[in-house]
Every structure is written in C-alpha cells, then in structure tokens.
Design brief:
The complex is a heterodimer of chains A (250) and B (255). By secondary structure, chain A is an alpha/beta fold. Helices cover 16% and strands 27% of the residues of chain A. Chain A has one domain: Metallo-beta-lactamase, Chain A. In chain A, helix 3 runs parallel beside helix 5. The relative contact order of chain A is 0.17. With 255 residues, chain B is of the alpha/beta class. The relative contact order of chain B is 0.16. Classes of the chains: A alpha/beta (250), B alpha/beta (255).
Chain lengths: 250, 255
C-alpha cells in the first residue's frame, strides 16, 4: 500500500500521485475568450512536477490542451483514438491508445479506460496502483456501464467527478455532462472513500454563458446529494492547489 | 446615516485622449466589490476565497496585505486596528469604489467592523468571519501568545490534516499581529460602538474554532443591531480555507 494524493490544478485537470507515480488528467492551461476555467490555476506548465503520464478523456479544448504541453512530449499520453491522433500530430511518440476496457501500465500503475458519453467520443478511467483505486470521470454523462465498475475493480478510494450538467444551447439544450444528482448517483455506485467534484467553475464568458453553454457552477448541490445517498463518502470541494490525501480503507 | 450626492455615483462623461482622437466616454460601473481582509494567518489565507468570490459573483475583490505582514513594511506610526481601518477607508476613496462589502477573517474581521463604524459612504455592508475584537466576558478569546505555530493550527483548524503542508508564508505572523492588537485581541469599547452600527452585517462562524468559539460569534452578532449569524459546521477559525464553498453560500444567502 503506497500513498495516494490528488491536487486539482483547475477544472478537470488533476495531479494524481498513485503507486509512486505522478499522472496529470485532462490538461487545460490556456484561456481563450470563450473557454475560461473560471478559477486561477494552481500551477503553470513550468510549475508541474515530473510527470509519468498524461491521461486524457476526449479532445475538447478544456481537456486536451496538448499545445500547452509541447515541452512534455517525452511524457506518455493515454487517450482514446481521437486524442491519440492529436498527440501524434504534435510529435508525441509514446501514445497509448485506449478504448473502453483497454488497459496500459505506467510502472506498476494500471490505467484502464472505461466507458463514457459526451458531445464527442469520450472515455473515463480507472487508475490503480499501490493498492489504491481511483475513478476519473472527465466530463462524461452518467452511463449504465458504470454499474459494472465495482464488480470489475473492487473498492474505490477516490472518485473525481464532473457535476455541472453542462448543456449546449445551440444543440437544443442537449445535456453533455452529468449533473450534481447524476454524479451523486454515480458516487452511490462507486462508494469511494472520498469524492471530489470538478468541471463546475468553467465559464464561456458573459454572452457565451447565455448563448452557448449552460452549466451549474455550484458544487454544493453535489455535496448535499451525496450526504443523503451515500453518507460514508466524504465530499471534498477543493479550490485549485489543495492537496487531498484520501485515507486508506485497510 | 451618511448621504452622498447621487451624481457621484453617476458621473458625467469624461474626455479620454488616446492621441488619434479625443473620445467622450460615459462610464457606468455598478460593480459591487468586496474588500477582503486577512487575519493573523496572513494574506495567503484569503487569496483562494477571494478568487472564488470574484469568479462566482463576477465581481471585484480587493485583498490588501496589512502593512507588516508577509514581509511588507509597517511604518512605526501605524499601529492599532482603528488606524488600519482608516487606512482602508482612504484606499476605497483612492480607488473610487462604491457599494463595497467589507469582509474580514479573525483580526481582518475586527478591521472590517471598525471600517464599517467609520461611516464611509462607500461601505454598504460587512461580513465578519470568525472575527475577534469584541470583549465577551463569558466566552473569552483563547490567548495564543507564547504558542507555537503548530499549537495555533491545532486550535484554529477543525481538521489540522487539511493544513497546507508547506505554505510559502506560514502564519500566524505574530510580530505584525502584536503591532496592531498588542496581542489582547479585543477592545473593551467596541461592543458599545457596534450597538450604533446602522449597516447590514453578516456574522459567519466556523463552528470548530478553538480560538473564538461559536458562542463568542453569537455574542458578536448580538452586539450589532440586525446582524445575522450563520454557523459553518465543517470549519474552524479559517472557514475560507476549510469550507470555502459553504462560506460563499453563506455570504450569498438572503439572510
């Protein structure tokens, strides 16, 4: 059993320390007029510690900011085919292309892609190492296949989940991200010791929020719903930069 | 009650010359900013919450460093909490900001209370977060003089396991704190003066505070006519660090 810690850099970008390795999830370091994390990032690319892998759920700008990471092209990128194409185009050579239920290893850490659903093709991940298990939900919708996760992977120490229920206004208000209630339902399936919400501070700008996206920027609804459904799980709502160390269950 | 000519809030057009053409610009700014004041833990103890407040309320948050904290200079003549409050009243004048909510934690809350009492027309309300400064004989403030930073953290945090492992500027800053408070942490005359305060005030309290407990907080709210009291269960003396979202919700709540 080795240490597990997570530090939210911003949005869905986390530094995950597991099994003696350091992984970065869904990187996003660059602000554009209609893509603003809505919170200060805990660190710049230059301030990142040495990484063992970059784990990406899908190619959207706020999850796959590979252009900001060109200095790190020696670090393996793990992602679905749609991400792998973009990584190779930018000069990455160690690209681990995973679709749902495929696995790869980084040292003694196993990264398994799990199903997901979003406006574009997306996978989620289960990351295991040092006897600890983490679910990383990117910005997926809630999908039925998540019910298989406890049977396949056992007990979860940590779940990192989107909660803003993002809807795309020009697409008839189509929902593309799970909302707080759905994230709490997923938490009740996974029953992790600690759950951390992410992907809620994002803004498309004053007009973009009115004309392009609609999302819930309040993470506390998730916390209160989890407290009702699965009180054994501790919800930690963290500002960027707060390092959380989930206590081991055994 | 302070009155202000309306024209000051709706100024006439200005001339701005960019060199290519003289521009006539009518500028309307109804931002409702915050002045967010740190306590003895230092300026970094409010930064994250200030960022959250600015982002979530789409507003402006001014976070000054009290002179003498975090390595800044404090002129020898600047001492006492009222002097700090007067300095910040001047800052609001200099920045020409209006409808300011003054918020502060610990001694920052004390400064906020003193600033509210100055009657600046620019200050429209105050949020006191685990504030000190009031003398409450039945529920005295814990004397932290002589304690180590680790002992102070054990009192201040509900879960000391959440203390950032290696903050760039560890608090509390005892020397700066002593210059403003004399380490007494209260002013016997503050209670009587607060009884005449005619501003909306929210008193918000981290429940697990070993420095100034919830009953002290209730007494603070009771000392201010019309003030509300909100308890945050999952925090100690620094709710902006232990439960920032809950604190934000309390700041935004209608009561």
């Amino acid at each position: 059993m080795t240490g597990l810690a997570v530090t939210r850099v911003g949005h869905s970008c986390h530094l995950l320390e597991i099994g003696g390795r350091t992984l970065l999830t869904d990187p996003w370091f660059t602000v554009t007029p209609t893509y603003d994390p809505g919170e200060p990032l805990a660190m710049s690319v230059a301030g990142l510690p040495a990484l063992d892998a970059i784990v990406i759920t899908h190619e959207h700008y706020d999850h796959c900011d590979l252009d900001a990471l060109l200095a790190l092209r020696d670090v393996p990128v793990i992602g679905p085919g749609t991400v792998a194409v973009r990584a190779r185009e930018r000069g990455w050579t160690d690209v681990r292309e995973l679709e749902a239920w495929d696995s790869t290893t980084i040292g003694n850490v196993t990264v398994t892609a799990t199903p997901g659903r979003h406006g574009v093709h997306e996978v989620t991940y289960v990351i295991q190492g040092g006897g600890r298990t983490v679910f990383f939900g990117g910005d997926s919708l809630l999908v039925p296949a998540f019910k298989e996760l406890p049977g396949r992977f056992g007990a979860f120490d940590l779940a990192l989940l989107p909660t803003n229920g993002l809807c795309v206004r020009p697409a008839g208000g189509m929902q593309v991200v799970m909302n707080a209630t759905e994230a709490a339902e997923l938490t009740a399936i996974l029953r992790p010791r600690v759950a951390i919400p992410h992907h809620y501070a994002f803004t498309s700008g004053r007009l973009g929020d009115l004309m392009i996206t609609k999302g819930d920027r309040e993470p506390l609804a998730f916390a209160s719903e989890v407290a009702r459904l699965v009180p054994a799980t501790e919800v930690r709502v963290v500002l960027p930069g707060q390092r959380v160390i989930p206590v081991s269950g055994s | 009650m302070t009155t202000t000519p309306s024209a000051l809030r709706w100024p006439a057009a200005e001339q701005i010359d960019l060199g290519r053409a003289p521009l006539t610009v009518l500028d309307r700014d109804r931002t409702q900013p915050f002045l967010l004041l740190h306590g003895g833990a230092g300026p970094h103890s409010v930064t994250g919450f200030g960022d959250l407040l600015a982002a979530r309320l789409n507003t402006r948050v001014l976070m000054p460093t009290h002179p003498g904290f975090a390595g800044t200079d404090r002129p020898a003549g600047l001492a006492g909490i009222p002097a700090l409050a007067a300095l910040y009243a001047d800052l609001l004048d200099r920045l020409d900001v209006w409808d300011v909510t003054v918020a502060g934690n610990s001694i920052g809350g004390w400064v906020a209370a003193e600033l509210a009492l100055l009657g600046s027309p620019r200050v429209s309300g105050a949020v006191l977060i685990n504030a000190v400064g009031l003398e409450v004989p039945d529920h005295p403030i814990t004397d932290i003089s002589g304690l180590s930073p680790a002992q102070v953290q054990a009192l201040a945090w509900k879960d000391p396991g959440r203390v950032p492992p290696n903050p760039a500027q560890p608090g509390p800053d005892f020397a700066a704190l002593a210059a403003y408070t004399g380490m007494t942490m209260s002013d016997p005359a503050l209670g009587d003066r607060l009884a005449d305060l005619d501003l909306p005030v929210k008193v918000i309290w981290g429940a697990a505070d070993g420095i100034a407990g919830p009953d002290y907080g209730r007494a603070y709210a009771a000392a201010i006519p019309g003030a509300t009291f909100t308890l945050i269960e999952d925090a100690g003396h620094l709710p902006q660090l232990e439960a920032p979202e809950e604190l934000l919700a309390a700041v935004r709540a209608e009561r």
